[in-house]
Amino acid sequence: MWGFQGGSRLLATMLRAPRVPRAGVTSKPPEHPISAGEQAIALAAMFTCFLAPTAWVLAHVFNTLTKACTLHNPLS
């Protein structure tokens, strides 16, 4: 019975109105619409910023591993 009372109290707490009122944020249409070309350039720039460093690291992982192996084992 105690579990049911605890669960009902938890449910009542969740359904109660929030103490802090929510902000009245509204959105409007953009003042200057962005063209498809500008969107394509922005998307390409974002992909380049995120993927170029990752690609460089992945391309050089093998070189780093072979250098590390030759430093620890100079006879091979």
Describe the structure.
- There is one protein chain.
- This protein is mainly alpha-helical and 76 residues long.
- The chain is flat.
- It has helices at residues 2-15, 36-72.
- It is built from two helices and no strands.
List how many beta strands DSSP finds: 0
Structural class: mainly alpha
Categorize the overall geometry: flat
| Average pLDDT number | 80
Flag low-confidence runs. none
**Helices and strands, in N-to-C order?**
HH
Taking the alpha carbons of the first and last residues, their distance comes to: 73 Å
Biggest beta sheet attributes: none
Beta content comes to under 5%
Radius of gyration, CA atoms, in whole angstroms = 29 Å
Count the helices. How many?
A: 2
Helix content: 55-70%
List the helices and strands and how they pair.
Elements: H1 2-15, H2 36-72
Describe the structure in brief.
Helices cover 67% and strands 0% of the residues. The protein has 76 residues and is mainly α. The model has no long low-confidence stretch (mean pLDDT 80).
Question: Main traits of this protein?
Answer:
76 residues; mainly alpha; 2 helices; flat
